[in-house]
Design brief:
- The protein is an alpha+beta fold and 124 residues long.
- It is 19% helix and 45% strand.
- It contains two helices and eight strands.
- It has helices at 2-19, 55-59; strands at 23-32, 35-36, 46-53, 67-74, 86-90, 93-100, 106-111, 115-123.
- The protein has a four-stranded antiparallel β-sheet. A four-stranded antiparallel β-sheet has the order 2-7-4-5, with no helix packed on it.
Length: 124
Amino acid sequence: MRRRASLLALLALLLPACGDSGAQHLLDSSNSGNADTAAFRPTGAWDLVYSWDCSAAAARHSPDANSFSFVVLNADDNTLAAQQPQTARKGKSGAGTIHYTRSGPYYVEITTVCDWRVQVLVKS
């Protein structure tokens, strides 16, 4: 039984990597609450994959434990990215992907009381 659980855990770790099919991670950042990610520089089209979970914030009785938003900013001058700069979502948890086509230096500013993860993927 223990060996089966270990194999299932290993499989769970390997499957996401297989699903990326040639995608390179430029950024993989997770945290809880408001934060800015590190800067990243895609040289072509890229995807921003995001997820959030408000379970822990709801357990702490945080009043805003049902929302997640982020802004993509140009890292060189802190202005809004021209393409889909702002995203706001409601709910106790969720996930999504936003596709971008413009290269450049960016960072993401997250506003939430919830746990979150943001990944930037480019096709290699």
